[in-house]
Structure formats: structure tokens, C-alpha cells
Amino acid sequence: MTTAVEFQNVSRHFGSIKAVDDVSLKIEEGTFFAMLGPSGSGKTTCLRLISGFDRPTEGHIQIFGETSEGIPPNRRSVNTVFQDYALFPHLNVRDNVAYGLMVKGEAKASRLKQADEMLALVKLDDYGDRKPAQLSGGQRQRVALARALVNRPRVLLLDEPLGALDLKLREQMQDELKSLQQALGITFVFVTHDQGEALSMADSLAVFNEGKIVQIGTPQDVYQRPKTRFVADFVGSSNVLPPDLCAQLGGESKWSSLRPESISITEDATAKVSGTVKGIRYLGSANRVAVAVADTEISVMPSASSPLPEIGQSIGLTWSNDALHSMDEE
Amino acid sequence: MHSDRPAPLALKVAAIAGLLFLHLPILLIFLYAFTTEDKSYQFPPPGLTLKWFAVTWNRPDVWEAMRLSLKVASVSTLIALVLGTLTAAAVSRAKFFGREAISLLVILPIALPGIVTGISLRSAFNLADIPFSTWTIILGHATFCVVVVYNNAVARFRRLSGSMIEASMDLGANSFQTFRYVVLPNIGTALLAGGMLAFALSFDEVIVTTFTAGQQATLPIWMLEELVRPRQRPVTNVVAMVVVILTFLPILGAYYLTRGGTDTAGSGK
Amino acid sequence: MSAIDQPTSTSFLNRMSDAFWRRPKLLLALMLAPPLLWLGMIYVGSLFSLLIQSFFSIDEFSGVIQYEFTLKTYGELFRPANYDIIIRTTLMAAAVTVASAIVAFPVAYYAARYARGKIKALFYLGAMLPLWSSYLVKIYAWKLILAKEGIINWIVDGIGLTWLLKAILSIPVIGGNSLSVSYIGTFLVFLYVWLPFMILPVQAALERVPGNLLEASGDLGASSRQTFTHVIFPLALPGIVAGSIFTFSLTLGDYIIPQIVGSSRLFIGQAVFAHQGTAGNIPLAAAFAVVPILIMALYLWAAKRKGAFDAL
Q1: Chain B residue closest in CA terms to A81
Q2: Which CATH number fits domain A3-233: 3.40.50.300, 1.10.10.1150, 3.30.200.20, 1.10.260.40?
Q3: How far lies C51's CA from each of B48, B208, C273, in Å?
Q4: Within a domain: residue C67?
Q5: What is the CA radius of gyration of chain A?
Q6: Do domains A3-233 and A241-326 have the same CATH topology?
């Protein structure tokens, strides 16, 4: 497997602020790689380091084995889908898509034909003559995608492209992006702060916090075996239990994460611990039950079939042994 | 802050009176261009005639002054366009030490009284032993025309999203291609508007010009001499009317070109 | 094809473009160099030379300029004749400023609050076109209007108010033989020419007043008049101050209007013009020219504290 993008101890300082702090990662060719983290965690900066709009203060970035230092953005085989789409308002859709081919000197007939083909791929066949102002948010997003892809980049960067879309549209676009990536075989690097998005689309993902990568792995890895409290909290929500309580519950004497949906309510002696129900919140597809156990509160999401307890009721909780995952750091 | 209720009558009257106060005097000049009386400013005009238009047409000094004014205005506008756009681009796209100072610097020639600008340039030219000529006039005009272009360009640059420029480079265009294919089309109308206003400003300027001109006479200088020592009064009236119409057009044009944005052309004189 | 370095021609433009990416400051420097050279050196340079010249003096007998630092020239400004000129000009500037604020306010207020659509555009153009139309033509128009045989006298005679006009003209100091050679005439022309400079900032300031402030005021029990006094006018004040900067500054420096419509007594602008002309007394001309700069600097400092620059 070829490495498409590699970061070797990359840092980007702005004065005393470390936007990116000693980041190392490897993105394999042909994968869908997500960079996940809260605002200001450095993920967008890393994206800009790949595209060339920013340069590292320390460290090296290699794209397909070649160093990217000194190569300006317009000469990299990397294209970006910008967060605000950045469509050219004075050009129509077709000319927008054909722009990259135009500046490289491709003949008019050829580039317009390729633009039309790409528009068909993103399901905007007859929109070539319209202006960006006449399109909806979702349509603009597809134009931005087509405009980037028509240049046959070896790496496609997407900077929170779905943020402005409403929920239904976002989910639809997630499916489309994923199938597009698999069909084209291009390496996608996708930046988002939405952990649900990252989990559902990525082949592997990196969790960023304060300029550093906190964990890299497959979505399953990151979700079920979070390394730190931050990851446990940011990727899905989790119960983070202190070491002594974990020891009591039969686990290691370390901070551990216990996903609410992996706990079930039980009456009998198989209960590992018991507590009092403090509150119930209705979420539509599920219920979140807050249970006071020892000095802390545990969140439980019982399956839809099990009967809901009442507030004040004393209940027993149980889970499978590997659901209590101990973490290396806090 | 709009009100749906109708305005009080007194306010309406005062507002309209104010506007009329602004416009009637100029309309009066139009009337005087047709008068038969040429020795005084008698009102009402004893008679109306078209003959002064022909007389003005045949006055060589009027044409010379007009030619010079057009030449000065064109060249000054060109220089102001280049300098104003460069400055506006730098100020709106980059952060650097002294950024606010530059904005102040650009506005200074028009903020300080014309007489200060005029006498400064004149004494500077004297010290440097530069003879007064058309070029000294142009130098003076270009200096205060820069701010007009600058204001329009900066307002438009602010609305240009930075990601558009990055997108262009991301797609393979170098800086020059980006300027030509993305930046210029999006600021074009603002530059046009700024250029038109600069033209009108230069065409009309008299205070700085009297200080920086040698023996040459631009149209305003010609008119100033006529005001002080009138020769054929109705000719002056005709020229005045023509000047008003000539400057009316670029102003209107500039207004329509920049109507969409928050900074309509001309509001920042 | 190389993975990242796409083959593009190594033309001069491409190499320049790469250089700009590697050194963004290079591009910035290139962009700023021409304007800075022009404005910085030529313009600011000449301002400095003017300032320096005001510290020189002229030998009264030989008419030769002494290039030595002295405050004597500034001292001459305090001679009664010169001092009069400064006072005269400043008072006129103040009068024009106050009057233009009073005349401009209804226009701006109506345009901001009640005008909509076409009418609004009409008002905007109505203030902007005179702003940009020929300065000299405007002065000339008033010379026609104020002339003895002109329209004002014709109207006044027609409605039988000649006695009133004569009474006004006989007011000492500001009166004169006719309107066109009196301070009243000068005042009217100044007011006319600078009025648009006051209308536009005031209108801009009023437009920025959010409608819901007025509603809130009404909701809290204020009458229209109280809303005006306590909400609208204070918020319009920065606009008025901004406009006043223009009217004040422009009046201080003008030398053409007093020359064409007014008495033979000089204003600052005329003094500057006169002294640098055949008299060759550049130091005194420079000193006179510095006066409006100083007055305006003071005025601007006071205006800044009132937040006028937001309305600009």
C-alpha cells in the first residue's frame, strides 16, 4: 500500500501559539481519511499544510513519497473542496468546473466536455449554464466537488464541506461522497468536527485536540477503545469512571470508559452494581437514563425493548467485560 | 430606521426645500445660457437665444482649456487607478505594520484643505527646480484622485472572499492568472466607478491646479479667470452648463455600477 | 507524471508567482512600493517642506528668505491685520457649520426615515450629484443669483420686501453694498457648496439607527418628541460631527469663494495665495497654511472622542 500523505513531526507555530504541535501521521492511498476535532484543534491547518496554503514551521510533509517543501499550491496534484465552496460568481457552473483545465491551457472543446462529464457524475447534468447564485447550497457543494475532481487530483481535500447543509441533505451527501470515493479510488482527506460524520464515512480517522493528534485508528477502534478521556467524550459520549470505582467493578485500576449503550438494566444477581435512577431523558430513538452509582453518575441507554424504570427506583446494571475499556491517560 | 407612518408635513417641506436649495441654482445657470443680455446678470432675462452656443463653439481658448482638462483628467485617472488598486489590494488582503497609517496617508491629500496641498506641491516643485507644466498639474491631480479609487476598490476587495483566490490557486492558476481570471472580473465595476469619479474630480478641480499650473489653463482655471474678469458672460454660462452635463454622466454611471454594495460610489468624498 | 510537482511551464510569470508564494512579503512590498513612493515621498515630502518653510523668515527690506530656524514668522500671525484674518475665517467656518447642520438635518432625516425605494434613490442622488458637480459652476451660479440685477433682488422687489433686504445689508460687519459683496453673500455660498458634505454623513448615521430602537422607546412610554431628543438625535450626532469636519475644514482653506463673492477683506486661503504669489513671502504663506491644519487637528481630536469616525 502506497502512502499518499505523510507527516513527519510537523509543527506550525503562530508566534507562541502552536496550531499544529508535533503531528505525525500516514494516510494510505485510496482511503477515506477523516481528521476529527473541535474548532481550533489544528485539523484545518493540517489540511492547508497538505494543499500548500500554509507551510510547516518544523517537520516534513511528503506527498506520494516526495517532499512538498517549496512547491506552491498551484503545482500540487492536490485539490480542495472549500468550506464555503468558493465558487466563482462571475462564471457559470460549467466554466467553474472547467477552470482548472482552462488555466493549464487545455483546449476549449475538450475542457468543456470534461466539465460536462464531471457534472453528470455529481448528478448536475443540466446545470452547466446556470450561475452559482442560482443554485442551492447542496448544488453548490456538488459543483465545488466536480470542479476539484475534474483535475484528477491524487489527493482530494475536503474542509468541513457538509457543515452548511441541513440534516437530511447532509446524510445524503455523506453517502454520495463515500460511494464516489470508492468508485474513483482517490485518497480523500476529510476534515470535520462532527464525530458521527467521521465515524460513518472514514476508513481511518485521526482525533485532534489542541494541535496534537490524540488517537488514530479505524472508527471502531477509536469508538470502542478510546485512549483518553477526551476521545471518549468527543467521539460519542461515554461514562468516564475513576480508577477506584473501576477496580471495584472488576476492571483495572485506571480511568475507564463505558459506553452508555453497552450497559443493560437487570434485576437479578448478575448485576455488577446497583444505583438509583435520577432522571430520564427522551431522545426519540432511545432513552437516556441517569443513574447515581457510588459518588458518580452513570448514563445508561437501554435497548428499546427493555421496560423503562421509574425515577427513584433502585436498579441493577450490567455489561460485558470488554465494554469497560481502560484508558492510558486521562 | 424606517417608519411606516407618513412624515410630518413640516419635515417634508423642510426636506424638499433643502433639496431644491441644492438644485435650483444650477438650473438657473442653464437658463442664463440662453439670455440675450451679455453685459450683466439681469433677471429675468430680457430675451432668449441660442446664439451663444455657436459663439462658444468658435472660441479657441475654450477648446484649448477643454482639451487640457480632458488630457489631465485621463492621465491622472490612469495613474490613480494603478496606485489606488495596488494600495487597496495590499491593505485589504494582508496584515502588516503600518496598515492604518497607509489608509490615513491615502486620504490626506483630500482631507487637508486644497490650499495646503496646493502650496506644498508648489513649493516642493520650486525647491526641486521643476518647471510648471501639464505634468505638474497631473502630478497634483493624481495625488488626490488616488483616494477615490482606493475607497471604491477597498470596499469591493473586502467583499471578495479569500477562499476564492485560494480556490483559483488550488486549481492550478498562478498569481497572475488568478488576478486576471478571478480578481479583476470581480472588482472591475468598482474600479470603473472609482475611475469615473476620479475623472470627474480631476476635471472639476481648481484650487490645487492654480498652484501647480504654469501658463496652462484647464477648463476650471479658464472659468475662474472669466469669473474674475468676465469677457462674454453668456459664453461662461454655456461652458458652465456643458461642464455640469459632462460631470453628471460619470457620477450617475458610477452610482449605478456600485449600487449593490454597502459602499455606494461617491459617498466617501 | 510526478506525484506532486505538476508540469507547468517555467515561464517568467510562473517563476514570479512561485516566488510570491515563497515570500509573501515580496508581493506586498512590490504592491506598496509605487503608492508609498508617490504619496510618501512626493506628497508628505512637500508637506514637510511647507512646514519647514514656516519656520524660516523673510527679510523685510530685501525680500530674501532667511533659511534659519525662527518663530518670528509665526509671531507675525498675531499682528492685528493677520490675526483678524484668522478670526474672520474661523468664525465664518463655525457659522457655516452650524447653518449647514440645521439645513441638512431635515433632508437627511426624511431620507433616512421616511423615504423608500425610488424616493430614497432620488434623495441620495439629490445630495450626491451636487456634491460632485462643478465647484466653480456652483459659485458662479450664486454670483448670478446674488447680483444686484439678479434673481434675489428681482423677487425681493416683486414682493415689496426691498426695505428688509436693505436693513439686512446695513447690519454692520456682515452687511455690505449688495449681497454679492457682503459676508452674508459669502456665507450663503459656503453653505450652498458644502451642504451635501453634511447631508450624506448625517443620513448614513441615521440609517444605522435600528428601527427596533424607536419601537423600544415607544414601548417604554416615550412620546415622539422624547424619542427624537433622547434616542434619534444623540445617535445622529456622530454623523453631524463627521459632516462638520468637512464644512469646517473646507471653509478654513477656501480662497476662491471669498474672492468671488465677498468683501475685499481677506480669508486665510486668500492670505496664503497672496503671500506666496508675487510677494514671495513663502514663510508667511506657509505659516498661514499651517493654521487650518492646526485648527483641524484640534477639531479632529475632539471629534474622535465623540466617535465621529464611525460615521465616516
Answers
A1: B167
A2: 3.40.50.300
A3: 53, 18, 16
A4: no
A5: 24
A6: no
In chain C, the number of structural domains is 2
- If asked whether residues C30 and C168 sit together in one domain, one would say no
What interface predicted TM-score (ipTM) does this complex get? 0.82
**Does the distance separating the beta carbons of B106 and C129 come in below 8 Å?**
no
Q: Considering the domain A241-326 in this protein, what is its CATH number?
A: 2.40.50.140
Query: Which of B171, B183, B184, B189 should we substitute to test contact with A (largest number of A Cβ atoms within 10 Å)?
Result: B171
Q: What is the pLDDT of residues B199-253, one digit of tens each?
A: 988 988 888 898 888 888 888 899 888 888 877 778 888 888 888 888 888 888 8
Of B156, B164, B170, B178, which to mutate for an interface test with A (greatest number of A Cβ within 10 Å)?
B170
Note whether C5 contacts A71, CB cutoff 8 Å: yes
Are residues A72 and C8, on separate chains, in Cβ contact within 8 Å?
A: no
pTM reported for the whole predicted model: 0.79
Same domain, yes or no: C205 and C251: yes
Residues 6+ apart with CB under 8 A from A66: C2, C3, C4, C5
Architecture of domain B60-257: Orthogonal Bundle (1.10)
**Chain A interface includes C18 (CB < 8 A):** yes
Of the candidates B155, B161, B184, the residue with the CA atom closest to the CA atom of residue B265: B155
Residue B21 to residue B18: CA distance in whole angstroms:
5
**End-to-end Cα, chain A, rounded Å:** 34
**Distance of residue A97 Cα from the nearest chain C Cα, in angstroms:** 19
DSSP states of C286-300: HHHHHHHHHHHHHHH
Alpha helices in chain A (DSSP H): 43-51, 93-103, 108-121, 137-149, 167-184, 195-201, 219-224, 229-234, 243-248
Nearest to B167 among A86, A90, A102 (CB): A86
DSSP, res B208: H
| Residues on chain B touching A103 (C-beta within 8 angstroms) | 168, 171-173, 177, 181
Give, for all 330 residues of chain A, the pLDDT tens digit. Answer: 789 999 999 999 998 899 999 999 999 999 999 999 998 899 999 999 999 999 999 999 999 989 988 889 998 999 999 999 999 999 999 999 999 999 999 999 999 999 999 999 999 999 999 999 999 989 999 999 999 999 999 999 999 999 888 888 899 999 999 999 999 999 999 999 998 899 999 999 999 999 999 999 999 999 988 888 889 888 887 888 888 888 888 788 888 888 888 888 887 777 888 889 999 988 888 888 999 988 888 888 887 777 888 888 888 888 888 888 888 765
Question: Is residue C221 in a domain?
Answer: yes
* CA dihedral angle for residue B135, residue B141, residue B145, residue B147, rounded to 10 degrees: 100
Q: How far is C11 from chain A (nearest CA, A)?
A: 13
In CATH, what number is assigned to the domain containing residue C151? 1.10.3720.10
Instruction: Let me know if residue C72 belongs to a domain.
Output: no
Residues C154 and C37 grouped into a single domain: no
Structural domain boundaries of chain A? 3-233, 241-326
Residue A64: list chain C partners with CB under 8 A.
3-4
Write the CB contacts of A295 (distance below 8 Å, at least 6 apart in sequence): none
Q: How far is A210 from A37, CA to CA, in rounded Å?
A: 9
Distance from A147 to chain B by nearest Cα, in Å?
Answer: 8
Of A78, A82, A90, the CB nearest to B185: A90
Question: In terms of residue numbers, what domain contains C19?
Answer: 12-46
Are C29 and C100 contained in the same domain?
no
Residue C199 lies in a domain: yes
Burial code of C180-207, b = ≥16 C-beta within 10 A, e = fewer? bbbbbbbbbbbbbbbbbbbbbbbbbbbb
